[in-house]
Design brief:
By secondary structure, the chain is mostly helical. The chain has a domain at 16-78. The chain is built from four helices and no strands. The chain has helices at residues 16-31, 38-55, 61-75, 82-102. Helix 1 packs parallel to helix 3 and helix 2 packs antiparallel against helix 3 (61-75). The chain is extended.
């Protein structure tokens, strides 16, 4: 009783939402929107979402809204959490204290 080997499955085709998301992120990076002022980002996002809606008519209104939220989050600057900073600082202090004690 040996198991039959199955042929590898072909990769799944990306959905329209996946393609639109990837294209939106690519546009954000190429167009320099990350460095723009918030009011210019909003204007750019309005225009781009209209383009996406025209390019991907199969997206529902809810999917377009989700895509916009993802795009707006992608444009936001990275923020650090104080808890993460404390852990890093604490680790460095322990490493420094250990290095001093062994020297």
């Amino acid at each position: 009783m040996t198991k039959k080997k199955t042929a590898p499955r072909p990769p799944a085709m990306p959905t329209a939402f996946d393609s639109a998301r990837d294209e939106l992120f690519s546009h954000i990076l190429r167009c320099g929107v990350l460095e723009a002022a918030p009011e210019h980002q909003k204007e750019w996002m309005d225009d781009t979402m209209q383009y996406v809606a025209d390019r991907y008519p199969e997206l529902s209104g809810e999917q377009q809204s989700q895509l916009r939220v993802l795009g707006e989050r992608f444009c936001q600057p990275v923020t650090r959490h104080p808890a993460a900073d404390t852990e890093v600082e604490g680790t460095n202090e322990v490493a420094t204290a250990t290095a001093d004690a062994t020297a």
